[in-house]
Amino acid sequence: MTNCLCQLNKLQELDLSFNIFEGILPSCLNNFTSLRFLDLSHNLFSGNVSSPLLPNLKSLEYIDLGYNHLEGSFSFSSFANHSKLQAVKLGSETNNFEVETEYPVGWVPLFQLNALELSNCKLTGDLPGFLRYQFRLRMLDLSHNNLTGSFPNWLLENNTIPLESLLLTNNSLKGQLLPLKPNIRIRTLDASHNQLDGELQESVGHMIPNIRVLNLSKNSFEGILPSSIAEMSFLWLLDLSNNNFSGEVPKQLLATTDLRILRVSNNKFHGEIFSSDFNLTNLEYLYLDNNQFTGTLSNVILRIPVLRVLDVSNNHMSGEIPSFIGNMTSLLELMLGSNSFNGKLPPEISRLQTLEFLDVSQNALSGPLPSLENFGGLMHLNLGRNIFTGLIPRDFLNSSELLSLDMRDNKLFGNVPNSISRLSELRILLLRGNFLSGFIPNHLCHLTQISLMDLSNNSFSGPIPKCFGFIQFGEIKKDQNMFGPSIYLWYNLNFHDTYAGHMVKYRRYVTMVLEETEVEFVTKNRLDSYRGEILNFMSGLDLSCNNLTGEIPYELGMLSWIHAMNLSHNQLKGSIPKSFSNLSQIESLDLSYNTLNGEIPPGLVELNFLAVFSVTHNNLSGRVPDMKAQFGTFDESSYEDNPFLCGPLLKRKCNTSIEPSYSPPKSSRESEAKWYDIDHVVFFASFITSYIMILLGFATILYINPYWRQRWLYFIGECIYSCYYFALDARSKLVAYLYN
């Protein structure tokens, strides 16, 4: 293609944007002296953009090399003599491309730009000096650099044609937004993610009355929000999140009819937000989280028929979740967590069939769980830390898209229903801290995509399912990003220009951060919180604090990608499987408070990432693993209350023998016996004698005391009836299953 292209010497327009071309830019571009329009953006071009490549292109009006894989340094003064140049776009997605704007010092351009985009181009210090000579700028994007100094009000006052879009996000600008002269042309102002502070001037709404997009998030603004902000009658997006604003949100702002996105998260706002003044009829995204708002979810929210996101989490809201919430059928996210809502979760909520994220955690909700099987597209469900009671409904969920299910710390009891196994894409299952009982069902092994499973602090009994060894537990493809943080919402900047006959529309995206799943999981002996993208890489299995019995399945050693495993505080017996030496990614392994015996497999010393290891309070014996690699970081606390373990770390020698002078000669077999060997005849004789004495004592008490005798007989009768009805119920279910 390059050979053919280089023959087009009289080419005036070249647009190869939004393809997958790669390689370096052809040097013959410098021969296209008639070229007026050049757009190579959004490709895979790489290498340096040498300054001699462009000087001859003095007919250029528009050049866009943005969003490639270019690298190295480019001197912007290469365009100094391009008097026809009107638009330059060199925005980068990588950190390998740098634009030098101040060399040579004091250079003066011949061009007058309409549009300039230098985002993520490693600009430092003050704003580029050549901008002082630009009087026709309509769009300026200097975002994602390291610009310093105060907010450049002169940019809004320096233009003969007033600036319409100023994008300075993610820099290091400091100070206050100084009083501005009225500017009726500016439509977009993004100064987010800087170090601006102070209060917004009371007249800010009069200074920029026609603004459509105003983003001042992630700064240090404080004080009360001026009521004049409601006079921005064309305001479409307002983002004031992550500041220190306080007071109440102006009532006038809550009646702005054109507002589509309102984000005031992570401030100190208070007061009742859903009052009778609330009338944002066209709102689509409402983020009120992490403030001090009070009141209830009143029916005024029904005035927003197209609301997609409602986030009031981590406030002081109260009352019941109203049943009319089921009428807000456009909702994609409903975030009500960390408030004081009480009562039941209304069954009408299941009407929200487009819902993707539902969080009602950390409230005081009670009663049984409703069926949510209509949530066909639900991706995240968080019901944790409430007072829900009863059984998990058999038809609880039926979402093939569900990624995380959190029902921890409630008062649920009974078995885990089969419907959970139909959640084929489930990555996170948290049932900790309930009263669930019975065997851990084998159908959980159908959740082959699981990376985090927490069944701890329940009353599960029986053996650990062997099939757990065939679940992925973190073995995911590198390109899978199931818990990514953001989506991007594109919007036009409401103006366009024509260059060499090409109409170019300017648009910009606003980052709409989806509510990120937050998971608490015990690993390395502490409760850690994992949020967002890290969940793509975290994996663990926690079965601690139950009544599990039997041996640890050998198959668990096949979980080579798992990072944390906790089987502590159960009644597991047998030896530690030698297959555990295959847990190559394990960082935390807790087997404490069981009745494990035998030796600790010496192959565990090959676990290079193991940071926490505990086998305390077991019946293990033999030599502790050699103090090398990660095991050199563990002390005797990892092995406490195993009286038959030995080794230098425990200051207990192995294979030692004591030979008193008065003792008779021992046989060769006896002399090779270890110090911790037990005389089995004596042990079983003493055990049987003790058992008989306890039975005789118990029978004597029942004979002497008629009250306790009656209670004992009553207890035996109850047990007989329970067993009878259990067998009868099991038989009827079996018959129904066979005939259905």
Structural commentary:
With 740 residues, the protein is mainly β. It has six helices and 51 strands. Mean pLDDT is 86; it is low at 657-676.
Instruction: State the end-to-end CA separation.
Output: 67 Å
Q: Regarding quaternary structure, how should these chains be classified?
A: single chain
Strand content: 25-35%
Q: Could you tell me the radius of gyration in angstroms?
A: 35 Å
Catalogue the unreliable spans: 657-676
With helices defined by DSSP (H or I, 4 residues minimum), what is the helix count?
6
Overall pLDDT metric: 86
Sheet with most strands: 23 strands, parallel
How many β-strand runs?
51
Roughly what percent helix? Answer: 10-25%
User: What characteristic shape results from the CA principal axes?
Assistant: elongated
SSE class: mainly beta
Topology diagram in text:
Layout: H1 2-5, E1 13-15, E2 22-23, E3 37-39, E4 44-48, E5 62-64, E6 69-75, E7 87-89, E8 97-100, E9 115-117, E10 124-125, E11 139-141, E12 146-147, H2 154-157, E13 165-167, E14 174-175, E15 188-190, E16 195-198, H3 204-207, E17 213-215, E18 220-224, E19 237-239, E20 244-247, E21 261-263, E22 268-272, E23 285-287, E24 292-294, E25 309-311, E26 318-320, E27 333-335, E28 340-343, E29 357-359, E30 364-367, E31 380-382, E32 387-390, E33 404-406, E34 411-414, E35 428-430, E36 435-439, E37 452-454, E38 459-462, E39 486-499, E40 502-513, E41 518-523, E42 526-531, E43 540-542, E44 547-548, E45 564-566, E46 573-574, E47 588-590, E48 595-598, E49 612-614, E50 619-623, E51 644-646, H4 668-671, H5 680-704, H6 706-739
